[in-house]
Specification:
- By secondary structure, the protein is mostly helical.
- The protein folds into two domains: 9-155, no CATH class; 194-358, no CATH class.
- Helix content is 72%, strand content 0%.
- It is built from 16 helices and no strands.
- Helix 5 runs antiparallel to helix 7, helix 11 (234-259) packs parallel to helix 14 and helix 14 packs across helix 16.
Length: 358
Amino acid sequence: MEHDRMAGRCPKGPVSLMSRVYKYILPGVRSELAGWRAAAEAIPDPELRKQALDSMNGKQFHCEGGAVYAAARLDLRDVLIPLIVALQTISDYLDNLCDRSTSLDAEDFRLLHRSMLDAVTPGAPLTDYYALRRENDDGGYLHALVRRCQASIAELPAYGRVQAHVRDLVGLYGDLQVYKHIAKPEREPELLAWWERHRSEYPELLWNEFAAATGSTLGMFMLFLAAGDPDLTPEMADNIRKTYFPSICGLHILLDYLIDQAEDREGGDLNFCSYFNSQEHLDERMLRMVRSARQSADRLPNPSFHRMIVEGLIALYLSDPKVKGQSQVRRTAGLLMKGSPWTRLFFWLNSHWIRKAM
């Protein structure tokens, strides 16, 4: 009967969800980030300090979006918000370090991302994550983020039942960050070789869709939320992992790449939407991913909450100002928005309420 009590805790609809987000979640996230920003400002190495601050200043919405999962368990928000913010801050910081790196060394990138694996592994000893790069004095910043994650995880009663799934998703995320940041001529061959090792598990996906799905942290955050339920079973944890990855995770990151196509073309950056055969093929695969994500959400306990996550993702990305200047993206957006009153409601809320509050 835990799921009945859980359903009582969950917001009932979009307005209820957004009310909780504005009253409880965003203030909690901003408080956490203020502490991490102060720590980042004290980093001795100027390059590490710059990337830590830039990652928070430019990607704060990642933490705000991820922490929406705490809206389903307000009684656990003092555990979930610090955990989600700390792990997402590690992710964004390392992405900046690799993306704007003074290094193209795959082993350097892998060692940096070992910090994420340690962060989701209670009792894992800390190591020198900067050992393979020139810049290495962060004043204990990355270690503090890892310890915050470990301390928060220790307060989740069923974490032992989700840990293997979380580590699996973190491992895939780390693989992606390694392969997409190495020297440009090596990126696609390494990504394709990586896909060959996994394609039998995901026959419904194309290689670029799998790669995109591994870049999402949403499956990790949902597993953290689930681990707050002492009655969680291994079967339920397995179901969450399979329903979030690859469909909901894949939709999340493909939407991100969809709206970034123009700036990625201009900057010469890798964009997984560019690997579809045509605009029609992109539209067809994006529609398939939307339908798959919706079906996955409907199979989970408290399906309305997960449908709000999916519809909120679609609305959040498709209401971004970047869409207006890209005619083909506008066309795709129109197709993805069809047939879902919830998406349109979230689109309106995001365009009128959320962006005015930013």
